[in-house]
Amino acid sequence: MKAHKIAVIAGDGIGKEVMPEGLRCIDAAARKHGIAIQWDEFDWSCDYYLKHGTMMPADWKAQIGNHDAIFFGAVGDPARVPDHVSLWGSLLKFRREFDQYVNLRPARLMPGVKSPLVGREPGDIDFFIVRENTEGEYSSIGGKMFAGTEREFVVQESIFTRIGVDRVIRFAYQLAQRRDKKHLTSATKSNGISISMPYWDERFAAIGEEFPDVRTDKFHIDILTANFVRRPDYFDVVVASNLFGDILSDLGPACTGTIAIAPSANLNPERRFPSLFEPVHGSAPDIYGQQIANPIGQIWAGSMMLDHLGYPQAAADVLRAIETVLAEGPHTPDLGGKAKTGDLGKAIAEVIAGN
Ligand code: ATP
Ligand code: MG
């Protein structure tokens, strides 16, 4: 069997501490399910930048462009390297050059994690947010006119291309179709944004014709955010433009109390280019070096990677093992325990192996 080649970029700070636990757990799942994985490690980070003047070598694209995925820790060392340098020098380059047009984040209530929403049980909340990742409101087209005068004003355009809208909406339908509830919600604001959002709605309905078995609805973004808090059990898959998706993909995990352990995937669904899997958290320099970082975000990101590579059962095994350890311990200090990063990784890997 041909091994899946995965580019491993641990990066900076706690990225270097949680990554070994991610590898340990995904290796355990791979052994159990007979999946061959070849890990290729790259030391692209702020340390690399301080030595070489760039976050990555000039031929970075040739070095990892043919890998099946990128398993990413975190970059950022704000005391020594400005955040825009570290961010634009790696993550955002991948997103653009590898056309990772879907950002996918789960909002799932986990056992042993305190949700800020009262009365919700694990199992109640389990949905995905699909965010458009390349266009929409985050264009840099526009500018300032009559600068410095009383007539001064700024304009910033939104761009919604048919290709860009259709492909992210189609991905969301396909994801919904794979799930039990087969329910897709679209985030809109066509009562206030009178050109781009009606277009989004139109394409959402048009693509829906290809998926007659998926139940759909749409909400304006204002009431949708309210419903994330009031009725989170209602949702299954939610698709949104770049700006609305940005907001929802923080709010969703926040409602389940899991933002510190949540994963995120930047996907090129056709697999023309590698997709990237990472924990939502950053490099957290304040706790780096103590081996107290919670590795669950990294391990959960690995579970999403297994799913993307075509191994849903192995992915589900990893997620179940995370839930077992969240319910029974050990816990790192962020969850009120005394365990070290490696204790959690080891415990989760053991559950995976013994499942
Ligand atoms: P970004 O790099 O995205 O700007 P940030 O600096 O805003 O991130 P993080 O690096 O995610 O934020 O860290 C915020 C705080 O949360 C940290 O200071 C740290 O104390 C805590 N934290 C983040 N990740 C973890 C983790 N895996 N385990 C324990 N605590 C964490
Ligand atoms: Mg930071």
TrEMBL record:
PROSITE patterns xref list: IDH_IMDH
Protein origin, superkingdom: Bacteria
SUPFAM superfamilies noted in UniProt: Isocitrate/Isopropylmalate dehydrogenase-like (SSF53659)
Coiled-coil intervals: none
Domain Isopropylmalate dehydrogenase-like: 5-348
Keywords associated with the record: Manganese, Metal-binding, NAD, Oxidoreductase
Cofactor(s) essential for the protein: Mg(2+); Mn(2+)
MF terms in GO: tartrate dehydrogenase activity
EC number(s) per entry: 1.1.1.83
Keyword Secreted: no
Gene3D superfamilies in the record: Isopropylmalate Dehydrogenase (3.40.718.10)
SMART domains recorded: Iso_dh (SM01329)
Pfam family, one: Iso_dh
Keyword Signal in record: no
InterPro entries (UniProt xref): ICDH/IPMDH, IsoCit/isopropylmalate_DH_CS, IsoPropMal-DH-like_dom, TTC_DH
Catalyzed reactions: (R)-malate + NAD(+) = pyruvate + CO2 + NADH
Entry similarity comment: Belongs to the isocitrate and isopropylmalate dehydrogenases family.
NCBIfam families for this protein: PRK08194.1, TTC
UniProt name for this protein: D-malate dehydrogenase (decarboxylating)
Species this chain originates from: Dentiradicibacter hellwigii
